[in-house]
Amino acid sequence: MSAGLALLARDVRLAWREGGAVGVALGFYLIVVVITPLGLGPDLNLLARIAPGILWVGLLLAALLSAGRIFDNDYEDGTLDVLATGPLPLSVVAGLKCLAHWLTTGIPLVLLAPVLGLLLNLPMGTFPSLMLAMLAGTPAVSFVAGIGASLTLGLRRSGLLLALLVVPLYVPILIFGVSAVTPYVSGPNSTWPPFFILCALSLASVVLAPLAAAAALRTALR
Amino acid sequence: MISLANPTRFLNLVDRVVPWLSALVVIVLGIGLYLSLFVAPPDYQQGETVKIMFVHVPSAWLGMFGYILIAIAALGTLIWRHPLADVAAKTAAPIGATFTFIALVTGSLWGKPMWGTYWVWDARLTSMLILLLLYLGLIALWQAIDEPGRAGRAAAILGLVGAINIPIIKFSVDWWNTLHQPESIFRAGGPTIDPSLLTPLFVMAIGFTALFVLLHLIAMRAEILRRRVHALQQTQVERAALAEA
Amino acid sequence: MLDLGTHASFIIAAYGVTFIAVGALVLATIEDDRKQRRKLAELERLGIRRRSAKAPASPTVKTLAKPKATRAPAKRKAAGPRGGKARS
To answer: How far is A9 from A46, CA to CA, in rounded Å?
Structure first.
């Protein structure tokens, strides 16, 4: 138990100390949300309608950008080999690293989202459902990104490859994530069914993704 | 399966099967094309364009069939460590991707006379597009990892993860589609397919499937030989190095 | 005879794309198969065989070469990373 917490604390501390990666993800999120209206025109009604979609797509892209960080640093300096032979099962190690990613990158992105929503004229009444939906969906985002990161460990152009591998897996999170926000904006349907599906996706990812990631890490470390 | 685990025995099987399977493919596809183009009647709604269904639907089926094959092969690699499983998975991906691509293009060409646009984000076409992305991811992963052992296992993991996600993706795309396009979406041939259209469809489907199997076997043979060539080339290099030293 | 109706060009295009894509796939598959078989024949011609293949005319050359071939490169490979780490 304490070994796991120690690992988690270490990863969180490293991420915060490094600072750059988290900042890059937040900065990239900002960029995406800024250039979209520049491409689409300043019509506030249009922007309000598509804001949930843009906010989710931007979040996914920013998360993908930072996903390589989950295992790469430890792989390069050999720490991953030590962790693999340590007291914790590799799947637990993988899970804790994904959790660290969620805590240090996912949650900051979620906190930034409503602010960027202001830029897109998202009605402030939707802010609670936006944050709730994102908090429910971002664990899945981080853990699925962990699968991609573990498969592409140490490869050339791993960033692009990781994005290609993970984007199809992100489709359900995106679709239900936006559905859990939009109804206030576009209609009377309840946001709760997609929200619960999002929770289910996250729970399933938290349980299953570490298993797949550990298997992939083992193939890379062999 | 177990008796085929020996690559040499598998190669012998392929050598024996390919000739008559090739003949079968040519005959069945020939009959299928004849039925599709000359015998099948026009649909009362779509006219002659229903003929596109005879290439679109079998291609779509084979795109999905290819991925199922890859998922089973992935289990073979990870659980049973069947020696030919990763060969099967690696070679099935480009074939499945090609059929998925054909399904997308023919679906798009079918759509233009039907709905007026080359692309609609309806549930089926969108799911096919995501399937193509899954295939491309697999192929890219195979290309990116040099060491074949690691590549095989990584691709197997990705294949399984993708296979598990496909029902979820399909469900979410269906949901997304009904959310944004409440009007009824066109289904192949309408609510019921006229029997006179079913026969050409099935003949083409059988022909395409036989073609898939044929190409897959040849590709597996080529892959096994490629690995032997690679091993022998390494021996060649080692001997040359020794001769110099 | 073959009346494809008002949208004939789409039907032709669809069948055309199918034909071309399938044709390209078939050609690529067969060509790759032939290439591997050619390479294998070439290597066999040079006398480099798999251990389970039939022995060539001069078995002494083969048995002398092989033990060295399996040991020496292994040593070189093992020395590499260890040597690298010691340096850094």
So the answer is: 43
pTM of the model as a whole: 0.85
A104 contact partners, CB below 8 Å, separation of at least 6:
A11, A12, A15, A16, A22
Q: Which of C25, C29, C65 sits opposite B239 (nearest CB)?
A: C65
| ipTM here | 0.88
* Whether A175 and B144 lie within 8 Å, measured CB to CB: no
Q: Are B166 and B63 in contact (CB under 8 A)?
A: no
> What are the tens digits of pLDDT across the range B22-49?
999 999 999 999 888 888 788 777 777 8
What backbone torsions phi and psi does residue A147 show, to the nearest 5 degrees?
A: -60, -45
> Chain A contacts of B175, Cβ < 8 Å?
175-176, 179, 194
**B157 and B74 Cβ atoms separated by less than 8 Å:** yes
* Burial class of C49 by CB neighbour count within 10 A (0 to 12, 13 to 18, 19+): middle
In terms of phi and psi (left: phi > 0; alpha: psi -120 to 50; beta: otherwise), the region of B39 is: alpha
Residue B209's CB: how many other CB atoms inside 10 A? 16
Rounded CA-CA distance A72/A80 in Å is 9
- Run of H or E including B29: helix B7-34
- Closest residue by Cα to residue A194 from A56, A3, A22: A56
CB distance A112 to A23 below 8 Å: no
List all residues of chain B from 126 to 155 with a beta carbon under 8 Å from chain A: 130, 133-134, 136-137, 140-141, 144-145, 149-150, 153-154
| Local structure of C26: helix, strand or coil | helix
> Which residues, other chains included, contact B92 with Cβ-Cβ below 8 Å and sequence gap of 6+?
B66, B69, B70, B73, B216
Please state the domain extents for chain C.
1-48, 53-88
> Cα C53 from chain centroid?
18
Kindly state the tokens that stand for A47.
């922007």
Given the structure tokens 């690559």, which residue do they identify?
Answer: B7
- Asked whether A139 and A205 are in contact (CB, 8 A), the reply is yes
Closest CA to B92 of B3, B206, B2, B218: B218
Number of domains making up chain A: 1
Cα-based torsion angle of the residue sequence C63, C68, C74, C76 in order, rounded to the nearest 10 degrees: -160
pLDDT tens-digit series, residues B165-219: 999 998 888 888 876 654 444 444 444 567 778 888 999 999 999 999 999 999 9
